[in-house]
Amino acid sequence: MKVSQSGRATLWIIIALVAVIVLGAGGVGGWLLLGNRAGTAHAASAPPPPAKPVFFQLDPFTVNLQQTTSDGGQLLYVGITLQLGDATSQAFLQEHLPQVRDRLLLVLSGQTAGNLITSAGKEHLAAEIRGALVKPFGAGQPKLAVNHVLFTQFIVQ
After folding, report:
1. In the predicted model, is pLDDT for residue 29 greater than 90?
2. Rounded Cα–Cα distance for residues 153 and 61 (Å)
3. Global confidence as pTM
4. 40 pLDDT more than 70
5. What percent of the chain clears pLDDT 70, i.e. is strictly above it?
6. Is-contact 99 136, C-beta < 8 A?
7. Residues 6+ away with beta carbon under 8 Å from 81
8. Helix (H) or strand (E) holding 146
């Protein structure tokens, strides 16, 4: 049986199409397989999610501010929440709450209204509060992790 010239051309076209389909399927399969491995490796090396923040909310403070003129006193009403690094710090602050409030009252009452109305003044106050709280309350105290001082209410009157 003799195959004609056009039959041979058709046979070669069919063989070429089958080869392209087989190679294409193999390439797609390999890409999917390697893509999934890379995704799995990426997921395994991804950093763990950050720890949940520990907040310690204090009752609001109302204090007389330092006078800069003879007009009379001005008041500061401020709500403070502390962002802590761990639950140990939270438990310690809760146990020593009267001392915590005393330190904060001293820091707050030493401020002037002129300093507190600016953003820089509020940032400076937050740094002073943090500094007052990380100082030891007594011997054998664990190191307190006070990460941020957050003002939740702030009125100067």
Report:
1. no
2. 10
3. 0.67
4. no
5. 89
6. no
7. 55, 56, 57, 58, 150, 152
8. strand 146-156
Amino acid at 7: G
- The burial class, CB within 10 Å (0-12 / 13-18 / 19+), for 108 is buried
Which residues, including other chains, have CB under 8 Å from residue 96's CB and lie 6 or more apart? 137
Nearest to 100 by CA among 57, 154, 151, 148: 57
Residue whose entry in the numeric block shows the structure tokens 């509020």: 122
Q: Distance (Å, rounded) from C-alpha 83 to C-alpha 54? A: 6
pLDDT at 82 over 60: yes
Indicate whether 30 pLDDT > 90: no
Per the document, the length of the chain is 157
pLDDT at 68: 76
**Do the Cβ atoms of 128 and 115 come closer than 8 Å?**
no
The secondary structure of the chain in percent helix, strand, coil, rounded to multiples of 5, reads: 55, 20, 25
